[in-house]
Amino acid sequence: MLGFLKGDRVLWGILALLAIFSFLPVFSASSNLAYVIGKGTPWGYLMKHFVILAIGFVLMFFVHKIPFNYFKGIALLMMPVVLLLLIYTATQGNVIDGANANRWIQIPIIGVSFQTSTLASVVLMIYVALYFSKLKGEAPTFKASFLKLWLPVLSVVLLILPANLSTAALLFVMVLVVAFLGGYPIKYLLAICGTGILGLLLFFVLAKAYPNAFPNRIDTWVNRIENFQSGESADGNYQIERAKMAIASGKIFGLGAGKSRMKNFLPQSSSDFIYAIIVEEFGLLGGVGLLFIYLLLLFRMLVIAHKTDHAFGKLLVIGLGLPVIFQAFINMGVALQVFPVTGQTLPMISSGGTSAWMTCIAFGIILSVSADHQKIIQESEANAFDDIHSNPLDVLSEVE
After folding, report:
1. Are 279 and 380 in contact (CB under 8 A)?
2. Mean pLDDT highest for which of 80-89, 101-110, 162-171, 265-274?
3. Band of pLDDT at residue 393, cut at 50, 70 and 90
């Protein structure tokens, strides 16, 4: 099987390690859903998680076989599709407790829900990488880049924003990072960043002034920020308080796999707050070890980006890899009360669906970039070998 795997073997190993490890906390934390909420069984949730990861790795395998240059055309074709899907998602009118819940669409026939923002994030980062790879070191003006770059970016971000602030903000920041690495003038980036902040504030003001104009999650965001700043054990801080108790009870070595006590009291223990369960069961050593694995993952992606000779490949690896690492850090930071509650899952660990699949597809593209570099090296070595054996007398004369 290993002979069919191309690309960075260390990256393959890290991803497999994360996936295998994820079965322990997911199985343990899912007892909250099974016994407290009375929905399903831990073995059922474990099997669901296994199937999701298995499909994800199959997608990763097939995607990494595709030459990464093909994703240039795929991104151009998918951008209009993504925008239409986001528009459809945003206009469904799903509301939960008065808050915007337009994050998923239901796929007909098979009855599976699909989070369109995850697909949009991957496609947009490929599109942005493509745009800057075409510049070939030339710094564009804001006027020249507005229609081709910023209009698609703002359209995607604004369509995601009302239902998912954290995803929209993370995506916007990652676009700015890729733009900076792509040589976009800093003065324009600062202006765009300032405009984005002002636009977000305007959105807050309009949403508060006209609460019935369109469904949003302003009140939820405000409550989370206020609870984070106060640090009090209010109702909105229930999850954070339980997460902190779980982390504190883990101490250095943890309570042991499956022995978490807070999983029965912590909502979203198998997804948004799974890091707290990991620290409770595996202790400070387990929490720091997991952090180290994500840092190692970042290091391997930087190595792949450094090795490739293609500007598109470099930006592709950074644009698809950095969001995963940032998402992991945000998830850990929420559990540690470094950030307000965001709803971001722990990549390759938390139970999920489309988010896990899109992460696997992103890594498949990164592995495709790595595989292309390996192919070039192998071809150059083969050509050198053929040159030596085609004229052995020339080689002997050179030695003499």
Report:
1. no
2. 80-89
3. very low
- Which letter, b or e, does each residue of 133-147 get, where b requires 16 or more Cβ atoms within 10 Å of its Cβ? beeeeeebeeeebee
Q: Which helix (H) or strand (E) holds 358?
A: helix 354-390
Cα dihedral 307, 308, 311, 314 in deg (nearest 10) = -70
CA distance 61 to 111: 25
- Residues 6 or more apart from 121 whose CB is under 8 A from it? 167, 171, 323, 358
Q: Is 332 helix (H, G, I), strand (E, B) or coil?
A: helix
Burial of 318 (0-12, 13-18, 19+ CB in 10 A): buried
Please give the model's pTM, rounded to 2 decimal places: 0.89
What the block records as the tokens of 302 is 């930087």
Q: What is the DSSP letter of 148?
A: I
Report the DSSP beta bridge partners of residue 96. 99
- Residue 229: burial class (beta carbons within 10 Å; 0-12, 13-18, 19+): exposed
Alpha-helix residue ranges (DSSP H) falling in 116-263: 116-135, 142-145, 151-160, 165-181, 186-209, 218-230, 238-250
Residue pLDDT, tens place only, 336-345: 888 888 878 8
Q: Are 100 and 163 in contact (CB under 8 A)?
A: yes
DSSP secondary-structure letter at 39? Answer: -
CA distance 148 to 150: 7
Give me the residue spans of the domains in the chain: 2-377
How far does CA 116 lie from the centroid of its chain?
13
